[in-house]
Structures are given as C-alpha cells and as structure tokens.
Amino acid sequence: MPQLIAPHIRVHASYVAALAEFRGEGRGGPDDDSTIGRALRTYGDTWHDPEVFAQYIARLNALAPDPAVPRTSLWYADGDTYLGRLVIRHTLGSRFLREYGGHLGYDVRPSARRRGHATAMLREALPIVRGLGIDRALVTCESGNIASRRVIEACGGVLEDELHGMLRFWVPTGDA
Closest Cα partner for 142 from 123, 116, 168? Predict the structure, then answer.
C-alpha cells in the first residue's frame, strides 16, 4: 500500500525512471521554476550515480536546506516504487510562498496519475502539518490545473482567491 516516507535510497531506480518521465513531458527547462524543474537542472543526469543520489537524499532529509523556510520533504512510495513527492513548508516566510507556493506542494509521476495518489498524499500530510501548529494550510495550483484543484477541494480546500494565475486555497489540517 502506498504511503508517505522520508526520501530513501531504496526507491533509487524508480525515482530515476520517474524523473525521466517528468523530463519527457517537458519539465526541467530554463523557465520551469517548479521543484522538479530546479532539481532536474541541478542534478540532471547524475542521479543514476548512487553516491550522488545518496547525497541528494541527505539534503532533502535535512530539515532546512533553506534556513529561511524550514521544510519537510516526503516521497509517496509503494514499496520500492516511487510515485510522487510532497513538500511541507513550515512557514510562509516569503512573498513567493504566500502568493504562489503555499505550505504544501506535490507532484505525482506521469505514469501514476489519475489513480488518487495526489489526494491520498495530501490527506496523509495534513495531520503532519497540524502537528507543526498549522491549523489551515495554504495550497495553491495554477488556475488551469483542474486535476490539482479537484485534489485540493477533495481534501477540504476552500478557495480564497486567484492571484497571478494561481488559485489559493485554505485547507483545514484537522479538528480545531
């Protein structure tokens, strides 16, 4: 059964395959400012090297790769199969996060989409977010991303507004 896990070496081969899928849909170009896009540009074709991959995992598992915004990186995996990733930002410590990024960001590998994984990941993450003292999490998606909007709404997200082409939702993280 799929579950959120700390990034781990056991999904190495599957992770490399997933990133090839993302690259195949055009991710990682110079104007792709997503987490996946930046990672593809930074690590490129070096992830196949187990040592580079282990260093990448260590960096992800560090609580604060950016000291200004502590974050928790989690992967969604079914055994050794990487299905997606989710990042929890512990604060909205920048204008970018307040307007675009939000508390939570997630991606599901292209071959695993339309199976409920994004909704399951977000639902599984909400109690973790609640444990950080966040009662309502800001979750955003591009205004044309109907699938992501449905995921957010399925998890209780209430639309706040649209800002710069991004829909901004507040999602309750548990009982008040």
Answer: 168
Contact 120, 150 (CB under 8 A): no
Provide the pLDDT for residue 34.
83
Asked if residues 22 and 109 have their Cβ atoms less than 8 Å apart, the reply is yes
Structure tokens at 92: 């909205």
Residues in contact with 134: Cβ distance below 8 Å, sequence separation at least 6, in sequence order: 90, 103, 173
Mean pLDDT on 37-54: 89
Q: What phi-psi label fits residue 164: left (phi over 0), alpha (psi between -120 and 50 degrees) or beta?
A: left
Q: Which pLDDT tens digit goes with each residue over 121-166?
A: 999 999 999 999 999 999 999 999 999 999 999 999 999 999 999 9
Average pLDDT estimate for 47-54: 92
CA angle 96/102/104 to nearest 5° reads: 135
Question: What pTM does this model have?
Answer: 0.92
